[in-house]
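Reading a protein record of the kind used here takes only a little practice. The record below shows the convention in full.

——
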Amino acid sequence: METIGSWWMWMGFIALVLVMLAVDMFLLGRKGDHKVSFKEALSWSIVWMSLAMIFNAGLWWYLDGQMGREIADAKALEFFTGYLIEKSLAVDNIFVFLMIFGYFAVPPEYQRRVLLYGVLGALVMRAIMILLGAWLITKFHWILYFFGIFLLLTGIKMFFFAGKETDLEKNPVLRWMRGHMKITDEYHGEKFFVIKNGIRYATPLFLVLVLIEFTDLIFAVDSIPAIFAITEDPFIVFTSNIFAILGLRAMYFLLADVADRFHLLKYGLALVLMFIGAKMLIVDFYKIPVLLALGVVAGILATSVILSIAATRKAG
Protein backbone atom coordinates (compact mmCIF):
# COMPACT_ATOMS: atom_id res chain seq x y z
CA MET A 1 0.00 0.00 0.00
CA GLU A 2 1.42 3.38 -1.03
CA THR A 3 2.16 5.88 1.71
CA ILE A 4 3.87 9.22 2.02
CA GLY A 5 5.35 8.18 5.35
CA SER A 6 9.03 7.27 5.31
CA TRP A 7 10.60 5.37 8.21
CA TRP A 8 11.89 8.55 9.84
CA MET A 9 8.47 10.18 9.60
CA TRP A 10 6.91 7.22 11.40
CA MET A 11 9.61 7.22 14.07
CA GLY A 12 9.43 10.99 14.45
CA PHE A 13 5.67 10.95 14.88
CA ILE A 14 5.80 8.14 17.45
CA ALA A 15 8.46 10.09 19.37
CA LEU A 16 6.23 13.18 19.24
CA VAL A 17 3.28 11.19 20.60
CA LEU A 18 5.40 9.83 23.47
CA VAL A 19 6.49 13.36 24.37
CA MET A 20 2.88 14.61 24.30
CA LEU A 21 1.75 11.68 26.46
CA ALA A 22 4.54 12.41 28.95
CA VAL A 23 3.40 16.03 29.14
CA ASP A 24 -0.19 14.91 29.59
CA MET A 25 0.68 12.40 32.31
CA PHE A 26 3.19 14.42 34.33
CA LEU A 27 2.18 18.03 33.72
CA LEU A 28 -1.55 17.48 33.97
CA GLY A 29 -1.14 14.86 36.69
CA ARG A 30 0.95 17.05 38.98
CA LYS A 31 -2.11 18.14 40.94
CA GLY A 32 -3.09 14.59 41.90
CA ASP A 33 -6.75 13.66 42.09
CA HIS A 34 -8.73 16.80 41.36
CA LYS A 35 -11.79 17.82 39.41
CA VAL A 36 -10.81 19.12 36.00
CA SER A 37 -12.36 22.54 35.54
CA PHE A 38 -14.05 23.76 32.36
CA LYS A 39 -11.28 26.34 31.89
CA GLU A 40 -8.57 23.67 32.19
CA ALA A 41 -10.39 21.34 29.79
CA LEU A 42 -10.92 24.16 27.28
CA SER A 43 -7.26 25.15 27.44
CA TRP A 44 -6.03 21.63 26.79
CA SER A 45 -8.63 21.04 24.06
CA ILE A 46 -7.26 24.09 22.27
CA VAL A 47 -3.71 22.80 22.77
CA TRP A 48 -4.47 19.36 21.29
CA MET A 49 -6.38 20.76 18.31
CA SER A 50 -3.67 23.36 17.67
CA LEU A 51 -0.99 20.67 17.70
CA ALA A 52 -2.97 18.64 15.15
CA MET A 53 -3.31 21.64 12.84
CA ILE A 54 0.36 22.59 13.24
CA PHE A 55 1.34 19.03 12.38
CA ASN A 56 -0.90 19.13 9.31
CA ALA A 57 0.61 22.44 8.22
CA GLY A 58 4.10 21.05 8.69
CA LEU A 59 3.18 17.95 6.70
CA TRP A 60 1.80 20.12 3.89
CA TRP A 61 4.98 22.24 3.86
CA TYR A 62 7.21 19.18 3.66
CA LEU A 63 5.15 17.47 0.92
CA ASP A 64 4.90 20.72 -1.05
CA GLY A 65 8.67 20.87 -1.23
CA GLN A 66 9.27 17.16 -1.82
CA MET A 67 6.32 15.92 -3.88
CA GLY A 68 4.59 18.99 -5.25
CA ARG A 69 1.62 21.19 -4.42
CA GLU A 70 -1.03 18.75 -5.70
CA ILE A 71 0.02 15.90 -3.42
CA ALA A 72 0.54 18.28 -0.49
CA ASP A 73 -2.98 19.71 -0.86
CA ALA A 74 -4.53 16.25 -1.22
CA LYS A 75 -2.81 14.73 1.81
CA ALA A 76 -3.42 17.76 4.03
CA LEU A 77 -7.12 17.64 3.11
CA GLU A 78 -7.25 13.89 3.81
CA PHE A 79 -5.64 14.45 7.21
CA PHE A 80 -8.08 17.22 8.15
CA THR A 81 -11.13 15.25 6.97
CA GLY A 82 -9.99 12.11 8.78
CA TYR A 83 -9.29 14.14 11.93
CA LEU A 84 -12.74 15.73 11.82
CA ILE A 85 -14.47 12.36 11.36
CA GLU A 86 -12.51 10.68 14.16
CA LYS A 87 -13.03 13.68 16.45
CA SER A 88 -16.76 13.67 15.82
CA LEU A 89 -17.09 9.92 16.34
CA ALA A 90 -15.19 10.32 19.61
CA VAL A 91 -18.14 12.36 20.88
CA ASP A 92 -20.15 9.14 20.95
CA ASN A 93 -17.47 7.68 23.22
CA ILE A 94 -18.05 10.59 25.55
CA PHE A 95 -21.78 9.90 25.79
CA VAL A 96 -20.98 6.33 26.84
CA PHE A 97 -18.28 7.47 29.28
CA LEU A 98 -20.81 9.78 30.93
CA MET A 99 -23.24 6.88 31.29
CA ILE A 100 -20.57 4.64 32.84
CA PHE A 101 -19.34 7.29 35.28
CA GLY A 102 -22.93 8.14 36.21
CA TYR A 103 -23.87 4.48 36.75
CA PHE A 104 -20.95 3.93 39.14
CA ALA A 105 -21.27 7.42 40.67
CA VAL A 106 -17.56 8.06 40.10
CA PRO A 107 -16.47 11.28 41.86
CA PRO A 108 -15.24 13.86 39.31
CA GLU A 109 -11.76 13.98 40.88
CA TYR A 110 -11.26 10.25 40.16
CA GLN A 111 -12.39 10.35 36.53
CA ARG A 112 -9.17 11.96 35.31
CA ARG A 113 -6.96 8.90 35.97
CA VAL A 114 -9.44 6.45 34.45
CA LEU A 115 -9.64 8.52 31.27
CA LEU A 116 -5.84 8.77 31.09
CA TYR A 117 -5.48 4.98 31.05
CA GLY A 118 -8.48 4.80 28.72
CA VAL A 119 -6.70 7.04 26.22
CA LEU A 120 -3.49 5.01 26.48
CA GLY A 121 -5.43 1.81 25.82
CA ALA A 122 -7.26 3.42 22.92
CA LEU A 123 -3.98 4.51 21.33
CA VAL A 124 -2.58 0.97 21.46
CA MET A 125 -5.78 -0.58 20.10
CA ARG A 126 -6.08 1.98 17.30
CA ALA A 127 -2.46 1.43 16.25
CA ILE A 128 -2.97 -2.34 16.05
CA MET A 129 -6.27 -2.06 14.19
CA ILE A 130 -4.95 0.53 11.71
CA LEU A 131 -2.00 -1.69 10.81
CA LEU A 132 -4.31 -4.69 10.54
CA GLY A 133 -6.80 -2.74 8.43
CA ALA A 134 -4.06 -1.50 6.08
CA TRP A 135 -2.77 -5.05 5.64
CA LEU A 136 -6.26 -6.42 4.95
CA ILE A 137 -7.01 -3.76 2.33
CA THR A 138 -3.67 -4.45 0.64
CA LYS A 139 -4.32 -8.20 0.49
CA PHE A 140 -8.08 -8.16 -0.02
CA HIS A 141 -9.51 -5.10 -1.78
CA TRP A 142 -13.01 -6.48 -1.38
CA ILE A 143 -12.72 -5.89 2.37
CA LEU A 144 -13.69 -2.28 1.62
CA TYR A 145 -17.18 -3.51 0.71
CA PHE A 146 -17.37 -5.37 4.01
CA PHE A 147 -16.32 -2.19 5.86
CA GLY A 148 -18.91 -0.22 3.92
CA ILE A 149 -21.77 -2.59 4.74
CA PHE A 150 -20.66 -2.71 8.38
CA LEU A 151 -20.62 1.10 8.69
CA LEU A 152 -23.94 1.45 6.90
CA LEU A 153 -25.65 -1.06 9.18
CA THR A 154 -23.98 0.43 12.26
CA GLY A 155 -25.21 3.89 11.29
CA ILE A 156 -28.77 2.63 10.76
CA LYS A 157 -28.73 0.85 14.12
CA MET A 158 -27.32 3.92 15.86
CA PHE A 159 -29.96 6.15 14.27
CA PHE A 160 -32.92 4.08 15.46
CA PHE A 161 -31.52 3.31 18.91
CA ALA A 162 -29.92 6.71 19.61
CA GLY A 163 -32.59 7.68 22.11
CA LYS A 164 -32.48 4.45 24.12
CA GLU A 165 -30.39 4.04 27.26
CA THR A 166 -28.08 1.04 27.61
CA ASP A 167 -28.68 -1.18 30.64
CA LEU A 168 -25.23 -1.72 32.16
CA GLU A 169 -26.61 -4.38 34.49
CA LYS A 170 -26.86 -6.66 31.46
CA ASN A 171 -23.34 -5.93 30.23
CA PRO A 172 -21.59 -9.33 29.94
CA VAL A 173 -18.16 -7.92 30.83
CA LEU A 174 -19.47 -6.31 34.02
CA ARG A 175 -21.43 -9.42 34.98
CA TRP A 176 -18.34 -11.62 34.49
CA MET A 177 -16.15 -9.37 36.64
CA ARG A 178 -18.71 -9.28 39.43
CA GLY A 179 -18.96 -13.06 39.32
CA HIS A 180 -15.21 -13.78 39.31
CA MET A 181 -13.57 -10.96 41.31
CA LYS A 182 -13.63 -9.68 44.86
CA ILE A 183 -14.79 -6.07 44.68
CA THR A 184 -14.97 -3.41 47.38
CA ASP A 185 -18.18 -1.48 47.95
CA GLU A 186 -16.46 1.88 48.21
CA TYR A 187 -13.80 3.87 46.36
CA HIS A 188 -10.24 4.12 47.66
CA GLY A 189 -9.05 7.30 46.02
CA GLU A 190 -7.67 6.66 42.54
CA LYS A 191 -6.60 3.11 43.42
CA PHE A 192 -7.73 0.21 41.22
CA PHE A 193 -6.80 -2.46 43.78
CA VAL A 194 -6.48 -2.59 47.57
CA ILE A 195 -5.34 -5.24 50.05
CA LYS A 196 -7.75 -6.19 52.84
CA ASN A 197 -6.78 -8.86 55.38
CA GLY A 198 -4.14 -10.11 52.99
CA ILE A 199 -6.62 -10.44 50.11
CA ARG A 200 -6.49 -8.32 46.97
CA TYR A 201 -9.75 -6.56 46.11
CA ALA A 202 -10.62 -4.63 43.00
CA THR A 203 -12.25 -1.26 43.57
CA PRO A 204 -15.27 -0.03 41.60
CA LEU A 205 -12.82 2.24 39.75
CA PHE A 206 -11.20 -0.85 38.20
CA LEU A 207 -14.58 -1.99 36.86
CA VAL A 208 -15.04 1.46 35.35
CA LEU A 209 -11.60 1.27 33.73
CA VAL A 210 -12.31 -2.11 32.12
CA LEU A 211 -15.64 -0.88 30.75
CA ILE A 212 -13.96 2.27 29.38
CA GLU A 213 -11.33 0.16 27.61
CA PHE A 214 -14.01 -2.19 26.26
CA THR A 215 -15.93 0.84 24.97
CA ASP A 216 -12.78 2.11 23.25
CA LEU A 217 -12.41 -1.25 21.51
CA ILE A 218 -16.01 -1.25 20.28
CA PHE A 219 -15.76 2.30 18.92
CA ALA A 220 -12.41 1.56 17.29
CA VAL A 221 -14.18 -1.09 15.22
CA ASP A 222 -16.46 1.67 13.89
CA SER A 223 -13.98 4.48 13.46
CA ILE A 224 -11.07 2.68 11.78
CA PRO A 225 -13.10 1.59 8.71
CA ALA A 226 -14.56 5.11 8.58
CA ILE A 227 -11.21 6.79 8.06
CA PHE A 228 -10.13 4.22 5.47
CA ALA A 229 -13.07 5.52 3.43
CA ILE A 230 -11.26 8.87 3.25
CA THR A 231 -7.73 7.64 2.57
CA GLU A 232 -5.90 4.35 2.36
CA ASP A 233 -2.55 5.92 3.23
CA PRO A 234 -1.56 4.28 6.56
CA PHE A 235 0.45 7.31 7.66
CA ILE A 236 -2.46 9.71 7.22
CA VAL A 237 -4.87 7.24 8.83
CA PHE A 238 -2.56 6.71 11.80
CA THR A 239 -1.61 10.33 12.47
CA SER A 240 -5.11 11.81 12.12
CA ASN A 241 -6.59 9.06 14.30
CA ILE A 242 -3.98 9.39 17.03
CA PHE A 243 -4.33 13.18 17.18
CA ALA A 244 -8.11 12.80 17.55
CA ILE A 245 -7.67 10.34 20.43
CA LEU A 246 -5.04 12.42 22.24
CA GLY A 247 -7.58 15.16 22.86
CA LEU A 248 -10.32 12.78 23.99
CA ARG A 249 -9.79 13.27 27.73
CA ALA A 250 -9.83 17.06 27.54
CA MET A 251 -12.89 16.95 25.28
CA TYR A 252 -14.72 14.74 27.80
CA PHE A 253 -14.32 17.26 30.61
CA LEU A 254 -15.19 20.06 28.19
CA LEU A 255 -18.52 18.45 27.22
CA ALA A 256 -19.36 16.60 30.45
CA ASP A 257 -21.64 19.29 31.83
CA VAL A 258 -23.27 20.27 28.53
CA ALA A 259 -23.69 16.90 26.79
CA ASP A 260 -27.46 16.98 27.29
CA ARG A 261 -27.65 20.10 25.10
CA PHE A 262 -26.36 18.10 22.13
CA HIS A 263 -28.74 15.13 22.36
CA LEU A 264 -29.43 15.21 18.61
CA LEU A 265 -25.74 14.86 17.80
CA LYS A 266 -26.07 11.07 18.05
CA TYR A 267 -28.42 11.13 15.07
CA GLY A 268 -25.92 13.26 13.16
CA LEU A 269 -23.13 10.78 13.92
CA ALA A 270 -25.35 7.95 12.70
CA LEU A 271 -25.91 9.79 9.41
CA VAL A 272 -22.15 10.34 9.10
CA LEU A 273 -21.53 6.60 9.46
CA MET A 274 -24.22 5.83 6.87
CA PHE A 275 -22.73 8.35 4.44
CA ILE A 276 -19.21 6.98 4.88
CA GLY A 277 -20.48 3.40 4.51
CA ALA A 278 -22.25 4.31 1.27
CA LYS A 279 -19.09 6.10 0.07
CA MET A 280 -17.10 2.90 0.51
CA LEU A 281 -19.70 0.77 -1.27
CA ILE A 282 -19.63 2.89 -4.43
CA VAL A 283 -15.86 3.56 -4.44
CA ASP A 284 -15.24 1.40 -7.54
CA PHE A 285 -18.05 3.14 -9.44
CA TYR A 286 -17.68 6.72 -8.25
CA LYS A 287 -15.07 8.10 -5.89
CA ILE A 288 -16.59 10.96 -3.92
CA PRO A 289 -14.00 13.77 -3.72
CA VAL A 290 -12.48 14.25 -0.27
CA LEU A 291 -13.48 17.93 -0.23
CA LEU A 292 -17.12 17.01 -0.94
CA ALA A 293 -17.00 14.33 1.76
CA LEU A 294 -15.60 16.89 4.20
CA GLY A 295 -18.43 19.29 3.34
CA VAL A 296 -21.11 16.63 3.82
CA VAL A 297 -19.69 15.49 7.18
CA ALA A 298 -19.24 19.05 8.45
CA GLY A 299 -22.75 19.96 7.25
CA ILE A 300 -24.36 17.00 9.02
CA LEU A 301 -22.52 17.70 12.28
CA ALA A 302 -23.23 21.44 12.19
CA THR A 303 -26.92 20.85 11.48
CA SER A 304 -27.29 18.34 14.32
CA VAL A 305 -25.57 20.71 16.76
CA ILE A 306 -27.72 23.69 15.72
CA LEU A 307 -30.92 21.64 15.96
CA SER A 308 -29.85 20.33 19.38
CA ILE A 309 -29.29 23.84 20.72
CA ALA A 310 -32.56 25.06 19.22
CA ALA A 311 -34.50 22.14 20.71
CA THR A 312 -32.91 22.66 24.13
CA ARG A 313 -33.79 26.36 24.15
CA LYS A 314 -37.35 25.62 23.07
CA ALA A 315 -37.73 23.01 25.80
CA GLY A 316 -36.34 25.47 28.34
Notes: Residues 7-315 form one domain. The chain has one domain: 7-315. Residues 69-103 form the longest helix (35 residues).
